[in-house]
Amino acid sequence: MVYDVIIIGSGPAGLAAAIYAKRAELSVIVIEKAGLSGGQIINTYEVDNYPGTPGISGFELSTKFREHADKLETTFVNGEVTDFVLEGDLKVVTLDNGSQYKAKTVVIATGGAPRHLGVEGEEKLSGMGVSYCATCDGAFFKNKAVAVIGGGDVAVEDAIFLARICKQVYVIHRRDQFRASKSISSRLLALENVTVLWDSVVEKINGNENVETIDVKNLKTSENTSYDVAGVFIAVGYMPNSDIYKKVVAADDAGYIIAGENCETNIPGIFVAGDVRTKELRQIITAASDGANAITAVERYLNNLE
Ligand code: NAP
């Protein structure tokens, strides 16, 4: 069978795409890797910025998205994509169990993952003070002390954002200068409640139920210092899940698949939605928005085929 569309990934982008595809009466399957829908938000303790559901857990929100797709009788296929090729105008997706699916269009909604530091306490306290998204979680740390790890644009922007909410922001960077652009770096350095710890790395994140302190080592002096913080925002890069697709569609140097808001890649019939796309803001709401835009573009493409 040749489907109208195969959606790869079942996070907010993939599930929103599935809902739009079913409502448009397209023949569609959704391929999901873990046999569990929701993507990155499954592990998010609290989501407080998705309209209409203040304070909902990521797991509960993703369950609602999935139930909505199920109500529309969406077909989900479990498996990991191991190959993606074009056969003329057809798109062919192969899974790790050897099964193959063909479609006129594909929506790549495979997301990505923030890079982890790999220090003791990071995994244990993830969601309990350790966060990879200041825009998502910053509001939980009002008037508290927090640390931001990293020296790129994201770390510096996150620190500026957090300085408006938090009492004290420590920025911990392993070198003696930022990688981030000069303009935002200067803005950060001018803020009174921000302290930059240069040439420093976090060695351990401590706390029982929540983050309480971090152990920081100065790489030049080897001095160890403990800081009282309630939150640790890790901003040391992000890895889009695009390896399999980059040989077919254009991606930027960081691996994001290149597309604008209409989600059209450089290859006709291949669309990209959510965090794996080049975009300014990676959030649940922008991922869901991409799902809607991608299917609208799919419909436009299919109409032109007829
Ligand atoms: P990035 O530019 O790659 O910066 C990552 C930062 O984390 C670097 O400062 C790096 O240190 C540090 N780092 C990496 N691994 C580490 C580790 N294990 N321990 C401690 N520190 C570590 O990533 P990003 O900030 O996420 O930005 C991603 C891309 O988006 C960049 O190209 C960025 O310019 C772009 N962006 C642009 C804007 C804007 O223009 N407004 C906003 C956001 C993002 P080193 O510096 O020592 O390598």
Salient structural properties:
binds NADP nicotinamide-adenine-dinucleotide phosphate, single chain, 28% strand, 306 residues, 7-stranded mixed β-sheet, 24% helix, alpha/beta, elongated
Order of helices and strands: EHEHEEEEEEHEHEHEEEEEEEH
Instruction: Kindly provide the radius of gyration, computed on alpha-carbon positions and rounded to a whole number of angstroms.
Output: 21 Å
Helical run tally: 6
* Content-based structural category: alpha/beta
In one word, what is the shape?
elongated
> Taking all residues together, what is the mean pLDDT?
96
Distinct compounds present = NADP nicotinamide-adenine-dinucleotide phosphate
How would you sum up the major sheet? 7 strands, mixed
Provide the low-confidence segments as ranges: none
